[in-house]
Model the fold of this input.
Amino acid sequence: MTFLALTATQVAWLCGLTLAAVIALFFLKLRHPRVAVASLLLWERVLVDNQHRSLLERLRRLLSLLLAITIALLIALALGRPEAGAITGEPREVVIVVDTSITMAAATADGQTRSDHAREAALRLVGDAGGADRFLVADTSGHVATAMTADRTQIEAALDRMTPTAARPTFPQLDLTDREVIVISDGVARLALPRTARALSVFEPADNVAIADFEVVTGGDGGGSEVRLVVANHSTDAKEVEIAIDLDAGSDADSRVTEVVTVAGRDAVARTIAIEGSPSGAILARVAADGDALAVDDEAVDYLPPPRGLRVALVSSGNDFLETLLALDARVDLTVVPPDRYGGDEAVDLYVFDEFAPLVQPSQPALLFRPPGRAWLAGSDAVAPLRASETGVTDWDEAHPILEFVSMRDVQIVGARHLEFATDAATRVVATAGGTPLVVARSATPRWVSVNFALDDSDFAMRPSFPMFMQNVLTWFAGEARPLRRSVGTIEVALADATVATIDGADVPARSRLGATLFEAPTPGLYVASSGAAGAYVAVNLPAGLSDVNGVTQTGRDRVELPPGRWLSSELWTYLLALALALAALEWWTYHRRITV
Amino acid sequence: MAGRGGFARGRPADTHREFVMVTEETLFDGEFLKKLEYLHIVSKRAFAGQYRAERRARKRGSGLEFADHRAYAAGDDFRRVDWRAYQRLEKLLLRLFEEEEDLPTYLFVDCSRSMADGHPTKLTYACQVAAALCYIGLAHLDRVTLTPYTDHLGRELASQRGKGQIFKVFKFLGQLASGGTTNAKESFERFCRSKRPRGVAVVVSDFLDPHGFEDGLNMLRFSHHDIFAIHVVSQADADPELRGDLQLVDAETGSTHDIAATPSLLGAYKKVYAEFCDELERFCARYQLGYVRTQTEVPFEDVILQVFRQNRFLT
Done:
């Protein structure tokens, strides 16, 4: 027998002292109430007769003493929280990790969800375990719900709080030394399970269609907007999926576009749906199919800023890439100005300078390609051009608005000016491995972006990212609120001390950190972050691939059972206290019937 | 000296002392006294009295009741010659009349500490009974001697005659206090040694004598007194209301005993007490002693007017 609350020595001392105290108190001659009687003559006759009546009566006081000692020792032992492997089984420490990935929200045939089954399985494990076994409950969102405890109520409460989330599941960081690990999952989430972990599967095949990708773009064919979405069918059978695009999700207006597609089992279909007119604002896509077991992936949202025309002056001696690209943009009213004709007073919204920079900064935003050194750029062209070996792009700021959805990976640059810019005036957006800036942006009004290499000296203009880069730069210059597209989970917005609300106006708790604002977006939706005059729309959608409810990656079909306690299901001390209470009641009952006195 | 305590005020300090408040006003009203005057203490035998009174005496005398004839002898009073008998028998016969004398009545009141028990106390009750018996005796010109006792004889109220002495009785009884242990044998032995005229000896006691009640009563019996035992019983003696763990203290000796007053123990005690009462009653019956048992809870008027008459102690 071992003790959890005290050492064996302490328990021995406690029992010894208790024993001594009980015996001392028992034999301590407590003065009874004195009652005068006329004579003890007759009483003595009675007492002499009574004392010799039976062996039991002579043992009564001894019986009472034994009861008192037993009760006291039971309480003393209970204080030590004893464990007896022969009775309650060897105590174990078990870590139960409940998968709370989004696929656990899939409905099952009995009307419950996989998450409900996981909770029941966890409770069954705990209920069947021995009384001395202790459990730690955690989920795959990185949240440890309980400390190691034997308190079944606490464990049950923790399991009740667990709900599937759309965040990417991860196995919690825990000390698993000498602990049994049981993961209750549907086996879909890719979890880095420890080698000793045993998986208990609650998987049950389910039908599910989902929006795997969703985007609303402008400047498509014909200059209009179009919706691009991917509908995935995670079911084994083909599904007829109804797609509904709500073009004005923020209002009550009925502007829906619907389409029905058939998606084969375990397949996905990409659809591009042209949108007539000039929609703007929140745009919501929904898919629906029979027997869909998971609802959270049936919706996706995006935001389209209000359209606005831009007057652009391209100051260039001739650049086909730029002229063609800008001319194709429906919202751009392009004017090409030779450098020698540049006056700085053109009626434009922004300038694009190609290997040219005016001596005085224009009052409008400017995009410059390989500009010469100018004082307002805080740079100098006195430095020799970079060699090809020095222009490898290794670092770019993906969070910057001009690089959204722009990949600079493997962009080949054969030469660039090595311009140094004052770091307090501009932000280095793209740089070489040596830290030499390749793209620099200045946020202060008027904004400018300097691309330190010429389009002719790189393959950037021929890459798919280039049109996106140009779109981003023009949008950034125009001050349009392009939506940030993020996945569910913790969202970071590059706005200091911003307040966050849903598109319906409900406040979302947010916190500031290092000049940015963080908030939790557990479900897909459109959020609005505002900080003073600045603001940003954040379109939060489910990451692709998270909702494959049948994509079992782990076997996880073991039938895990903890061997129950041999006799008792609760801790031994509870039985000791119950026995002490019962004996106390017995003592009270027998005392009042003068059996033990 | 606890063993020598009791009897009267002014004795050495006794923590168990209880004074008996027996007064004419508190005990007897006029109507009750009238009823008492019609009662007589019954003696199974005739005893020689000292004074003329209303009791038939053993000797012949000048009473009104004819007793016998005897032959005339010289010097006899001619007035007592039965001339009618002379006419028939031609013999001078003298008419003899019964002598009516007083009855020596000895009232022994147990004043031991055990008599302080009960509500009212047994001593109070005993004094009330004794006062009533005294009045009855005094009213019929009997010589009444009142003697308290514990383990020795107390100062007695010497022979009194006539109703007018009742106030002395009240005063005497009013000064009695309980205390000391009981030793009837020792007390009555001293009484018998004092060569008192034989008469009615009334013992009013609870008879809880550590030395046994038999020896004390035997002392009186051997002295040829006509004995009446008035057994005063309290509810506390017969059916004690005890509960739980207690230390019983003997009121007389101060000895203690721890008990757990269980229903079974109390039942056993009641059984023993009943056996004790039966034992006393059987003893009295065997030796033709008068025996009356009375509870302190019973009004003593009822005891005097009904119980004593039913037991042929009074007529």
Q: What stands out?
A: Residues 74 and 104 of chain B are 34 Å apart (CA to CA).
